[in-house]
Structure formats: C-alpha cells, structure tokens
C-alpha cells in the first residue's frame, strides 16, 4: 500500500506542475497588456508602468513563473489589485463558506444517492426501479440554478423557514450559519445525487452478474448478505470516482449557486474578480482550485487501493 501511495503521489506532483504551467501560460497569452487590461483603456502610461512593475511584468517570462510558483509554495498568492489585500486572505475568508457548503452538499448527495441506488438495483425491472430511474432522470435534467430559485420561492418566500440569501457569518452562531447554507446545499446536492444513484445502481448490477456472486447465492447465503457483504464493496470503485469528481465540482463549480444565494464564497470571488479584471485573483484561485481537484483525485486513488487490493499492484 505504501508503494502504491508513493507512486500516486509522484503522479500528483507531476500533474500539479503541468497544471501550474498551463494556467500561467493561459494568462500570458491573453491578448493585450495584463496591466492595462486591469486598469482599463483610460489608464495613464505612468499608472500602467507602475502596475507592471508591481506585478513583475518587466521581468523575463521564466523568472516570473518561478517567482510566482515559489510564492504560492510559501503561501504568497500575490496581492489583489481590486481589494488591496493579499489573495490568500481573500481565499481564507471565502473558503469558510465554500468548503462547508461543498461538504454539506456532498453529505446530502451521498446520504440520498447510495441507499436509492442500492434500493433500485435490488429491485431491478420492477415498477419501483422504473420510478426511481425516472426521478433521477428528472433530477439530472433540471438545472441546479432553476431548482435553487424554486427552493427560495417555496421555503424562503412562501413558508419563511430559512433565509433567502446571504451569509451571517459563523460568529452569528452555528444555527443561523447552517440555516443560510441549507437551501444552496440542497440545490447543489439533488442533481448530484441523481447522477450518483444511477452510477451506484449500474455498478451494483454489473457486480451482481459476476461468478462469485452466483457462487455465494448457490451456497445459500441470504440475499441481503450477498448484496451488502460481497457486492457493495466491489461496486464502490466507480462510486468513489464520482464522489471525488462531485466534491471537486461542488467546491469549484458553485459560481451560479453562490450568486443566486448571494453567498461570499470562492465561486462568487472568481466571478467578481473576472468582472473587475483582477487577474491576480483569478490566476491564484484557479490554481488553488485545480490543486484541490488533483489532491481529491489522489485521495480517491488511495480509496481505490483500500476498496480493491488488486489495484495496489498496478
């Protein structure tokens, strides 16, 4: 298991290096001068020159890359031009909203999807299975932002059970903070639960057709024992893959939902940075999100090795 983890860690390091080069290169090939783009077309030459000097744009390309990546390794993501504060400070402020939101949505999605997928697989071909598959198809088809607006109308406007938007901060107490995250978490979780439940059902049906499952049944083992002890663990590989991808999506892809609910998270920060042409923030946050996705996939690889020992030798 140790060799398996070290080999995956080496691949993660290479992937992070390549990803940082790609993000840096994409920013470099943006048409025009980044400093002028950030200041606008009416900026004076002196202001543009000062910003170029502040951003280090007067240095060679290779020097700028190593200076940038070295700063990120030490926690220095640069300084936001719009907010006039270090980018890392902005990330910390927004992460306390986005990370709990992503975790809450992932917990809701997993809690709903896996039992539903198991239920549907155990009743393959029945009306219950058909009903579940129809419901999940609807869940996949509905855009999460439309579902979010529907939730706001029902539970915030009509019944007034939870706030319609905004985030009071964790200082206001655990209850008010979680209440402001409930609707966005549900809006994010249900479409993901629909996908995950279909994957769980498909993976279980594939495993249930294997020879060792037929052997277990032939030995007279109860159906529940065959399902939970022999089939479910071997069906977890594709489920873990989807879980890893979903967490990365929930953390990095919440721009629309955070804007619908007016949440001060990472997604809204990226949106604001793009509209305000704050390229330093965009570059740093994108690299951070890419690194998060890669690290999550690394943890999923380790989970693969736990779920299926045969993968440790590959």
TrEMBL record:
GO cellular component: plasma membrane
SUPFAM superfamilies: MetI-like
InterPro entries given in the database record: BPD_transp_1_N, MetI-like, MetI-like_sf
Location(s) in or outside the cell: Cell membrane
The UniProt record lists the keyword Ubl conjugation: no
GO molecular function term, any single one: dipeptide transmembrane transporter activity
UniProt membrane topology term: Multi-pass membrane protein
Entry's transmembrane regions: 9-30, 97-122, 134-156, 176-196, 235-257, 285-307
Chief site of localization: membrane
Pfam families on file: BPD_transp_1 (PF00528), BPD_transp_1_N (PF19300)
Family from the record: Belongs to the binding-protein-dependent transport system permease family.
The protein, known as: ABC transporter permease
């Amino acid at each position: 298991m140790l060799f398996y983890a070290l080999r995956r860690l080496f691949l993660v390091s290479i992937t992070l290096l390549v990803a940082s080069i790609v993000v840096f290169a994409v920013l470099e090939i943006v048409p025009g001068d980044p400093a002028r783009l950030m200041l606008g077309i009416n900026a004076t030459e002196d202001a543009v020159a000062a910003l170029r000097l502040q951003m280090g744009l007067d240095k060679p390309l290779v020097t700028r890359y190593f200076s940038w990546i070295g700063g990120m390794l030490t926690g220095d993501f640069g300084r936001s031009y719009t907010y006039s504060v270090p980018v890392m400070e902005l990330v910390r402020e927004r992460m306390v909203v986005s990370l709990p939101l992503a975790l809450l949505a992932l917990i809701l999605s997993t809690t709903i999807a896996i039992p539903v997928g198991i239920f549907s697989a155990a009743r393959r071909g029945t009306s219950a299975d058909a009903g579940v598959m129809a419901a999940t198809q609807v869940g996949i088809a509905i855009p999460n932002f439309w579902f979010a607006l529907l939730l706001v109308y029902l539970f915030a406007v009509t019944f007034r059970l939870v706030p319609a938007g905004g985030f009071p901060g964790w200082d206001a107490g655990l209850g008010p903070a979680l209440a402001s995250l409930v609707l966005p978490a549900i809006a994010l979780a249900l479409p993901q639960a629909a996908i995950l439940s279909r994957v769980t059902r498909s993976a279980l049906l594939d495993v249930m057709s294997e020879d060792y499952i037929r052997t277990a049944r032939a030995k007279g083992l109860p159906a529940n024992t065959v399902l939970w002890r022999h089939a479910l663990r071997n069906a977890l590989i594709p489920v873990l893959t989807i879980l890893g991808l979903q967490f990365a999506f929930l953390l990095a892809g919440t721009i629309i939902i955070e804007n619908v609910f007016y949440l001060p998270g990472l997604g809204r920060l990226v949106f604001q940075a793009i509209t305000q042409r704050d390229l330093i923030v965009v570059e740093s946050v994108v690299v951070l999100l890419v690194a998060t996705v890669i690290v999550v996939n690394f943890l999923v690889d380790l989970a693969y090795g736990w779920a299926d020992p045969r993968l440790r030798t590959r």
